[in-house]
Design a protein that fits this description.
alpha/beta; Rossmann fold; Helicase, Ruva Protein, domain 3; five-stranded parallel beta sheet; globular
Length: 449
């Protein structure tokens, strides 16, 4: 098998020569083009494993070439070379389908990393035997659309923001993007931004030098550097404090980190994936999430559908969950037709995670390893909390006292808010639009202690 082939597109002869020498030293055969039209002509008549293009060309721009490649030669990964600090152009290129970008003046070490990752992606297009270790369950139209979107974004290095309700499987989607892409052999590092205390967050993400603060008894590598060459998944990114949002923006733009107490910055090569159940656009408007960071992490957006939008998948999910639990118990679990029907009709405010919890509890409560309706202990009201910014509603049953119905609504809303904020009562009170003191009183009154 011969060497891989690359097309280098730049109107400056010295840049073309520099890139050609760099690639040839990596055993890559190089063809060059000085403008857009000659690049397209070479792409029409030759096979390439990758393309590097400058953003500014005499007869067009690199974005036009990215669009042409996506339409005519989508199996060729393309990376763009941007002017230093021109973040908007880089983001536009990624949105159009560019694999990655690199800024001038060129850092040759970073360039070699980019080329190596790009060639891995090209190999992936030819491979038929590599399957992700994780998979999405369900054959509904919503899940098939989600799979198609994951397939598209796995070919890129663009930051991806995953949003959806709690319990829909956002981390699973992030893991699948990683497993399906060129970085699958490198680390996947998940970080729950809401679970790290604010005062420790900088040290956890960026690392620190020995003696940089009380308790720093040795050097520590941060989570960002531990994801080198792989994927950093920032779960609940909406919980990042504003001062950390500024620092994360610099990591994404400069591709460097500076550990606490260190005077040097270190290059990092990580793909950023993020997720939240909150409305980031609204938070930008409220000033609690930086607009510039929003546009950098939200280059590509993926929505994970709630379970009520894919109710035809519930039967398959029930069977798979029961099969897994049967294996753990060493006994075959069964479910009555009535219990199965009750689950299919249920609203599932907690989505797939709630379905798993319901069946796990029912497996413990049921008699003779057969789950019936009473074992499910489903909520008697439908709680409609599609996203945290939507209204909470419930159905009042005939003959039921209004006061009792309202208490049930209130109880469900408070439980949902506590679950969404990981039982942080201050945050739950803010989410519900009441004071901390009022929430504490309502929790006590409703017997939720």
């Amino acid at each position: 098998m011969g060497n891989p082939r690359a097309l280098v597109v730049d109107d400056e002869a010295d840049i073309r020569e520099l890139l050609s020498i760099t690639l040839q030293r990596m055993n890559i055969d190089v063809s060059t083009a000085p403008d857009l039209n000659s690049a397209i002509a070479r792409l029409r008549n030759n096979n390439f494993e990758l393309c590097l293009t400058d953003m500014k060309l005499p007869d067009g721009d690199g974005l036009g070439l990215v669009e042409w490649i996506q339409s005519h030669r989508p199996n060729i990964p393309v990376a763009v070379i941007t002017a230093h600090g021109n973040v908007e152009s880089a983001v536009r290129a990624l949105k159009l389908g560019a694999f990655d970008f690199i800024s001038k003046p060129l850092d040759l070490a970073a360039l070699r990393k980019l080329i190596t990752a790009t060639l891995k992606l090209a190999d992936q297009f030819e491979s038929t035997g590599v399957l992700p270790k994780v998979r999405l369950l369900g054959q509904s139209a919503a899940m098939n659309e989600l799979r198609d979107m994951i397939d598209k974004v796995s070919r890129s290095q663009a930051p991806v923001h995953i949003y959806g309700e709690s319990g829909t499987g956002k981390e699973l989607v992030a893991h699948l993007i990683h497993e399906s892409g060129a970085r699958r052999d490198a680390p996947f590092v998940p970080v729950n931004c809401g679970a790290i205390p604010s005062e420790l967050m900088e040290s956890e993400l960026f690392g620190h030098k020995k003696g940089s603060f009380t308790g720093a008894v040795s050097d520590k590598q941060g989570l960002i550097q531990s994801a080198e060459s792989g994927t950093l998944f920032l779960d609940e990114i909406a919980d990042l404090p504003l001062h950390m949002q500024v620092k994360l923006l610099r990591v994404i733009q400069q591709k460097t980190v500076r550990p606490v107490g260190d005077s040097k910055e270190y290059a990092v090569d990580v793909r950023i994936l993020s997720a939240t159940h909150k409305n980031l656009s609204r938070m930008v408007g409220e000033g609690t999430f930086r607009e510039d960071l929003f546009y950098r992490v939200n280059v590509i957006e993926i929505r994970v559908p709630p379970l009520r939008e894919r109710d035809q998948d519930i039967t398959e999910l029930i069977d798979i969950i029961l099969k897994r639990q049967s294996k753990q118990l060493g006994e075959i679990l069964r479910i009555t037709p009535a219990a199965r029907e009750a689950l299919i009709k249920y609203h599932f405010p907690g989505n797939v995670r709630e379905l798993e919890n319901i069946l796990e509890r029912a497996a413990t409560l049921c008699a003779r390893f057969t789950i019936d309706v009473t074992d499910l202990q489903l909520r008697s009201k439908t709680l409609a909390t599609a996203m945290p910014d939507k209204a909470v509603t419930a159905e009042v049953l005939p003959g039921e006292a209004l006061g009792d119905a309202l208490e049930d609504i209130e109880r469900d809303a408070i439980i949902k808010a506590l679950e969404q904020t990981r039982y942080n009562k201050t945050k739950a009170a803010a989410l519900l639009g009441m004071s901390f003191r009022s929430l504490r009183y309502r929790i006590k009154k409703l017997g939720l202690d």
